[in-house]
Design brief:
single chain; 243 residues; 2 domains; 6-stranded mixed beta sheet; 5-stranded mixed beta sheet; 11 strands; 26% helix; 23% strand
């Protein structure tokens, strides 16, 4: 799809925070300019994100009012990080009356794997990239792609390594990437199948949102895939004393 000319992208889904600005060239004679900020971090996303956005706009000498759209990773990821990114995109879209485009964090990781290790990636016409991220408790966040620039083969899911293998096509080359890639390779071997492993140390980066298939989000919501760990306590209320 053809994206708007000037886009601000943000990501806070995992242990990193990033912002990127893509500014189209005047007259279309040159490639678009991309300015980005990226920092690995486990906390403090909300505070750093605002500063990063200001930094990329300032470096590009670009005004917020001149933006045409926003892009954001909607998850899966940490609950707090995913919520921060989506909430920031909503607020910025409202402030600038801007459309918002969304993508999964897994699609962004697929694009980063392509960027960092292109020779390890399968032929898009015949192979599959399985982005597998450790979600703990013996589960993985998984999404499969032929090419990150195209729509995903399937929606992102939360599942086990053995269930991933059961759903993978057996007739084409498969490269697993992400922190759960090796567990999928080992599960495949137990079933007599071969899964190759690509880059495993992947974190989403907002600049990769410009390399993936984006959908305009008419209702922007976080993609959590699992319920929160914290639950409201029951049976703890104090009985009201009769007057």
């Amino acid at each position: 799809m053809t994206l708007p000319r000037n886009i601000l992208a943000i990501d806070t889904t995992f242990a990193a925070c990033s912002a990127a600005l893509r500014v189209a060239s005047e007259g279309g004679c040159h490639a678009a300019q991309t300015i980005e900020r990226f920092e690995a971090m486990t906390t403090g996303h909300a505070e750093r994100l605002v500063a990063m956005i200001a930094d990329v706009l300032q470096e590009a000498e670009f005004e917020f009012d001149a933006l045409d759209a926003l892009a954001v990773t909607v998850g899966p990821g940490t609950f707090t990080g995913t919520r921060i990114g989506v909430a920031a995109a909503r607020a910025l879209a409202l402030a600038g009356t801007l459309p918002v485009y969304g993508s999964t964090s897994l699609a962004v990781m697929a694009a980063i794997a392509h960027r960092t290790a292109p020779d390890a990636m399968p032929d898009p016409k015949h192979g599959v990239i399985a982005v597998c991220v450790d979600a703990r408790r013996g589960q993985l966040y998984v999404q499969c792609f032929s090419d990150p620039a195209l729509p995903a083969i399937r929606a992102a899911i939360l599942t086990s390594a053995d269930d991933v293998v059961a759903q993978l096509p057996s007739e084409c080359p498969i490269v697993a990437v992400g922190s759960g890639a090796e567990s999928v390779r080992d599960a495949a071997a137990r079933h007599g199948l071969t899964v190759m492993v690509g880059p495993v140390n992947l974190l989403p980066n907002a600049s990769a949102l410009f390399d993936v298939h984006l959908e305009e989000a008419t209702q922007l919501r976080p993609l959590y895939l699992r319920p929160p760990d914290a639950k409201a306590q029951t049976g703890k209320s104090v009985r009201r004393r009769e007057q």
